[in-house]
Every structure is written in structure tokens, then in C-alpha cells.
């Protein structure tokens, strides 16, 4: 009942022949929380659709993408592998040709698609939804849903060849004695939208200090600072720059990747203010943003020179440089697409839905604006279209339908948050062979048949996400509301991270995640900020508590609890 109430169409049914036939994996990497009905029927529905469209468009040989369904309130991916060798062989030439093209022309290929995404987002972000008359708001809602779906098609159309280029480069370097944990040193240190965002926050931090505002940041709660600044005439120049920052970077959704239930930075800029507060202790310890970035680049260039010097001849050097450039370009893609598609597309979808929620709230159809997320997309569209048709009758009609449903689903979501949804279900393979499953989701053989996901352990193993060894006090963060608790130098322990979490990386000493592989956000962000990371432990947030002393070794992927708090 719980899953069917959220979306009967996308309920995973373990006893059905189809669902029994494929391998399902709980997608804690993108959605570690119980999913809302609106999130499941928009972003998650488009996520699955994008998998299938892109698989066909690129002729991905081993797979037709993934299905996305609900089980016990959580989101599961069902890997749609192609078993027929003849079909795989038919798809390989086209996909191979695409990968070869992308090795030498990735920037051109990427820009062709991302410009479409950016243009669509600019159009939607330019609409003041609060000023739209009801018929135009309904059309805006429907248009936003279609653009969100299109952007997820583009997401996977880019992701499949990008990951294939990375795997090709990795194999090239591995044959020449370079392991992946060493290869990533050669790829990091380039400007991405994530590091560009953090550079702008750094600039705001230094500007506030120069204007004599530092103490105001240090002595007040992050949630109170903006209101105090707005009452100060001397802070106007800083606020103008801050507002320009939000107009460019403020569409980050601060928590779940693939749901629309949490605000953007434009709605609630507290995470940005808290990041500025967190910069000051780092500055006092002698840390500098630009020097930190420069050190990462120096390490990269040194490693490149050392490796190139070991190659046998000029042909080897030329091929090395070709593959290195390709790997560097697609490596940057891992972060950039998250800003435009995962975050930007989710933000405009949320904006349209919340605008509708305001109209429903004013007509007493829902008890709070955010409660609109407890409707599915088609339910919301039906109510909005009815309001256009005959508002008086629609209000009377849906007052008998909507409030009870919203109340019921709120209770269901509470139950889902406490559910014992298993990590894997269905036709579980003996070994994990899908490279995206391994590199992105961190699915390794040991977790296909988990022995005890909830056991408390003092020794955890995962992927060596970013090199280095560090000891420190653990800070367990389960969602964005705990961001402000993170203090400089602490070890961040969390289910996952997304692009909205990146500002935390400027003040932490290291990071440990439950989910993810070598191409997950936490690993990439940690490398850019030169801090150790162990990802894909699958049991960190269950085993480690706030204040525990932990030691993480990002060189080998090991986490030790040294002392319990």
C-alpha cells in the first residue's frame, strides 16, 4: 500500500515475473531518503526514461539502461542488461564509433548538448511564476515537466560515452602500470562549475572581512546573519554581490539529488552563509583557497611529467597525451553536469510545483505550500486544470479529495523513513560486471549478498576515493539541516554527497560515505580539495557516531574507529 500510494505505476512487485527477472539495487547514492510522490513522478520518472532513451540513441552495447521503481518507500534501480550476444554485437560498432569521436572531440560533443540544457533552464528561470495567471501557470508547469524529461535524456546521452572514454583511458594507463588511485592525480585541478562556485564564496568571504563584517558572521547564527546585514547601510555593496552570486549559482537543491522536497539556495541561502562562517577558522589557520588549488595543480603536473618520462618512445608519449586529455575532459563532466542537470533541472521543476502549491494553499486545498509535494504530477495537473476550468467548483470538488490524501501520504512517508528496505532484491548476480555500477554507484561483489548492513563495525573498507591519511573527530551528517554542525577539520561521515555539499569540503579534514565509487561526487570533490576520502563503505553512518575519533586512509580505502565518543 505504501509504494502504490506514492506511485502505483512504479511500484516494485517482487512476485511479478518481470521484477523477479532483473537485479534491483537501492539507490542511496541519489536518493537515500524516502521519496515524495511528486519526486517519484517527475524527476525519478524522467531519470528512468532518460536511461532508456540514451541507451538506444548511443547504442550502448551491454545495457538498455535501468528501470526505477519503489520498494518500501525507497528508490530502486533495476539494471536492464542485454543477454543476447548477437544484439550486443550489433550495437558495439555504433557505440565504439561514438566513443572514438568523443576521445578526440569531447568538448564539441558536450557543448552541443549542454547548450540546449542551459538555454532551456534560462528560459524557465526567467519566468516569475508568482505573476502568472492560472492558465499560464498550468502551461508553465507542463512545459517544465517536459524540459526536465528532455534534460535527463541529455544527461545519459552524455554520461554513457563519457564513462566509456574514462574506462578506455583507465585501461590504457593500467597497461602501463598506473593504478586508478594514481591516475586521478593526473586528472584533477581543473576549473569546474563546482570549484567556480566555491571560489565565488571565497571572494564573498574575503570581501566581508575587508568591509569589517567578519565578526558579525562569527558571532551570529547563519540563519540570522542576512537579516542583520540588510539593516546595515555599510553592507549594501556586499549584499549586492551576494544577490548576484545567488542569481547565477542559487539553483542548487540543498539535499536530495532526485527529489524536489528541499529548498534551493535562492530560497534558503543559509548553507552559503554557513560556508562563509566556516572559511574564517581555515583562514586563521593559514589556509588559502588559491594556494590550495595551486597545490593540486602542481601535484598534477609533477605526476604527469614523471609518468611521461617512463614511456618508451615518442609514439607512446603522443598516445599518452591524447588519452590523458580525453580523460581530463570527461572527468570534469562528472561535476559540471550535476550543476546543470541534476541540480538545475530539479530546481526549475521544484519552482513550478511550489508556485502551484501557493495557489492551492491560498484556496485551502493543502495545509502548507510544501504539501504540494505529496501529490503526484498528474494529480497536481488535474487539480490545476480544474481550477482553470471552474475555480469555484474545483475548490469545492477537490476539498473532498486532496486534504485526506495529503494527510495519508505524510504518514506513509514517516513509515517509509523507518522501513527496512533491503539493499538488493530480485535476480542478484554472483558478481558485479557493470563498470558504471562499480565506478559510480560503488556496487562491489561483497554487497551483492550483504551479511549484515546494520552491524556496527570499528573497521570499514571501501574505495580509495582520494589519497592521504588523516585522523580526526567524526561529524555524521544525514541531511542538509546538519550542515551547520560541521566544524573545521572534522571528518565528514555521510550517506552520500552531491554538488550542493561541495562547500563543506573547504572546511573538513576528510570524508567517508556509505555509497559511491571512484567516480562519485564525494571522491571527485575530495581530490579537488586535497583531502582524504573513503567512499562506498555501505556502513559508515551506522557504525560511526558524532565525536568518535576516526582514522581514514584514502590510499587504500580503510576507515578505523580509534576511540568511541
From TrEMBL:
SUPFAM superfamilies: Phosphohistidine domain. It comes from the Bacteria. Residues 487-557 form the PEP-utilising enzyme mobile domain. GO terms for molecular function: transferase activity, transferring phosphorus-containing groups. It holds the Pfam family PEP-utilizers. This is PEP-utilising enzyme mobile domain-containing protein. It comes from Desulfosarcina ovata subsp. sediminis.
